[in-house]
Design brief:
heterodimer, A: alpha+beta, B: mainly alpha, Formate dehydrogenase/DMSO reductase fold, 9 helices, 69% helix, globular
Chain lengths: 217, 297
């Protein structure tokens, strides 16, 4: 089996938001929609204050609450772990928004463009997807790249053509993508060699973005 | 208002995906099914079933209309029936079908037995509403365990309040048990509300969610419970001539208290989970540090 997952090395992330920009470029999301976002967190109190940059987005959970609540079956989980949304079935009830503890979902209720709603650029006109209006949308782990890449015999996380755009773009080598079920994959090795945590793990969702925070001793 | 879901930062923020229309579904569904339940108990004695059935169904229908108006793709609404395996929203929609069928049959045939059957199905509908909230794992104030009994108790209390108010306006229509029953359900609702608020205050919700509940508490306590109970006690103690007036006011206050409680839960205490890290990474100072959960700490 395959289980796609992401590893974010918090020691490396510099909060440059290149992943965010790459995601927007790859997926043509509307202004204000950021499937891949980098949080800028301040932790502690003076004089012991830390600044941490935390990439977030859909965690493609093992037990995704968005899937179980979805009344239309638009949100589904594939066998390889990727949580997808069928825009043609979704009724836009936003129940999945309430179920997701990672605030990963967005809804765009009207065509929205960078230079005004009536002023779409040529690129925005070409890439506008009417089927995504008024329905839920979120990070897909760039599922099309993964599917097309694996069909060509490429390895996601290793071959850029088959790897999510945010991971490809990361200037600091903080983002990694790969198959958790393969003990020799890049992500498996990183998790083996480093201390890691997952966000809101106590909620039992089994998120699949792992955060590295220290070398394993 | 922007046409895009707003992302508001690191600490929990108030959800804005469900607005007053969604709250309307919980208000209408609770009051309607609660009313059907209490009315069904009176139906056998009154013999006049059809208005009772239609009033209850009207509330439930109005609630469903509210939620239909809120969804992004209303003309795909029938897709809501696709996922009964796990979705409580699907189950709510499915239960509404027999609820309306049996309720309308009760009205058509003026049958107290069918009204009772509709009330039982209505309880199922109300239970689904509670579970819809509980399954919302991204909203701490909704996923709390006591939300299901609280939603059920307030639905029954709202229905009992409405029944009390309406029956008090019609001479001879108010059963002797109606006032004591209302006091009982108000007491049950208040106990559940207190438990719910206390559990969230003990770390079950972001600080702002607990603050919103605390802020709403006096009005819910006094206006939704204490004053109606006192009014009913007076109605029971004073001469029968003044009792109906007091009962109408008490019933409407108990009803309004439940509606306000739901609006607070759905719209004002519905802060999301926010973001948290378990550890700060080894960087800068050279050593790792503990994590943080802004808005919760």
């Amino acid at each position: 089996m395959t289980k796609w997952a992401m590893v974010a090395d918090l020691r490396r992330c510099v909060g440059c938001q290149t992943c965010t920009a790459a995601c927007k470029h790859a997926n043509a999301t509307a202004p204000g929609v950021q499937w891949r976002r980098v949080l800028d967190m301040e932790i502690g109190q003076f004089p012991d204050v830390r600044r941490v940059f935390v990439p977030v987005g859909c965690m493609h959970c093992d037990d995704p609450p968005c899937v179980s609540v979805c009344p239309s079956t638009a949100t589904r989980k594939r066998e390889d772990g990727i949580v997808t949304i069928d825009y043609d079935i979704c009724i836009g009830c936003a129940y999945c928004f309430q179920a997701c503890p990672y605030q990963a979902r967005y809804k765009v209720s009207k065509p929205t463009f960078a230079y005004g709603d009536d002023n779409a650029t040529e690129n925005e006109r070409v890439r506008f997807k009417a089927e995504m209006m008024n329905v839920a949308q979120k990070c897909t782990f760039c599922v099309e790249r993964i599917d097309e890449g694996t069909a060509k015999g490429l390895t996601p996380g290793v071959d850029p053509e088959a790897t999510p755009a945010c991971v490809n773009s990361c200037i600091a080598g903080a983002l990694h993508f790969g198959d958790l079920d393969d003990p020799n994959s890049n992500v498996s090795r990183l998790l083996e060699e480093n201390e890691s945590f997952r966000m809101h793990e106590e909620l039992g969702t089994g998120p699949n973005i792992h955060y590295l925070w220290d070398k394993r001793s | 208002m922007s046409g895009v879901t707003q992302f508001e930062g690191v600490p929990p923020w108030l959800q804005r995906n469900w607005d007053i229309r969604a709250a309307g579904n919980f208000v209408g569904g609770g009051t309607g099914t609660g009313f059907l339940l209490v009315a069904s108990l009176a139906g056998f004695k009154l013999g006049l079933v059809w208005p009772l059935a239609l009033i209850g169904l009207a509330f439930v229908g109005a609630g469903l209309l509210c939620v239909w108006l809120e969804i992004g793709r209303p003309w795909r609404a029938l897709n809501v029936f696709f996922h009964p395996q796990t979705s409580w929203m699907t189950r709510e929609a499915m239960v509404s079908m027999p609820l309306f069928a049996i309720g309308l049959a009760a009205a058509w045939f003026n049958s107290p037995s069918l009204l009772l059957a509709a009330a039982v199905v209505g309880l199922g509908f109300l239970y689904c509403q509670g579970r819809i909230l509980k399954a919302s794992r991204g909203i701490p104030a909704w996923r709390e365990e006591t939300i299901v009994p609280l939603i059920m108790a307030t639905g029954i209390a709202e229905g009992a309040g409405l029944f009390l108010a309406l029956a008090s306006l019609m001479p001879g229509a108010l059963p002797a048990w109606a006032m004591p029953l209302f006091i009982l359900v108000l007491a049950a609702r208040f106990l559940l509300w207190r438990t719910y608020v206390a559990r969230l205050a003990r770390g079950g919700a972001p600080k702002k969610a607990s603050a919103a509940l605390r802020k709403a508490h006096p009005l819910i306590f006094w206006g939704g419970h204490v004053v109606p109970t006192v009014l009913l006690a007076l109605a029971l103690a004073l001469p029968p001539a003044v009792a109906p007036g007091l009962a109408v006011v008490a019933g409407l206050m108990g009803l309004a208290g439940g509606w306000y409680m739901k609006i607070v839960i759905i719209l004002r205490a519905a802060f999301n989970q926010g973001f948290a890290v378990s550890f700060a990474p080894t960087r800068g100072a050279g050593t790792p540090a503990g994590g943080a959960a802004p808005g919760w700490d």
